[in-house]
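Supplementary Note 3. Input sequence used for the single-chain structure prediction.
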Amino acid sequence: METPKNPLSINCRIREGLARLAMAMRVDEWNKAKASGLNPTQLAILALLEGRGQHEFGVKDIAAHLGVSQPTATDSINALERKGYLAKTPGQLDRRAVRLALTPEGIANLHAVETSDGLARQAVDALDADEQQDLLLALVKMIRHLQETDAIPVQRMCVTCRYFAPFAHSDSAQPHHCNFVDASFGQRELRIDCRDHDQADPASRAATWEAFQPG
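The predicted structure, written as discrete structure tokens, is reproduced below.
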């Protein structure tokens, strides 16, 4: 491991902290995967497909969203197909493409391990309500930076959705509005991964983000 140029900087110490949290989350992922009879990548593919609903999702999409190589994604997809957890069908938009969809068996396997309590959940529960909200807002900002610099795909967060209207209400407890469900909501309800997400164009995302930061 490369020695940090300035190990005492707050930037370095925050990254060290995130690395420790990531270690605990990897333990959680392996425990859940073991319980499901899969490996973490295979389980992550099931979760990704389940969250995407009817949207067409292929090998390239899975590799990009999970941060793995296409050969790794292909091997995991083939293993899941052999187990009967997902099925391949021709794409609706491009018949030459392959669309991946969960089978009932795949959904059942995924839901069987979703309720497990892990180290990361316990760590979050150790924070009080205000600390949890502050952490959520910080994570949203960090994830947005990564996606806007093309380091990761655009995530299905409120702040990237065309239905999101930030600070549309004077109520400090529920200042935001979701035009998809036509309801107000608060900072604590901001989504990192929403199934109803409809990605806004880059200009709209920038304007929404500007309005989301009032100060």
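The mean pLDDT is 89. The first helix runs from residue 10 to 36.
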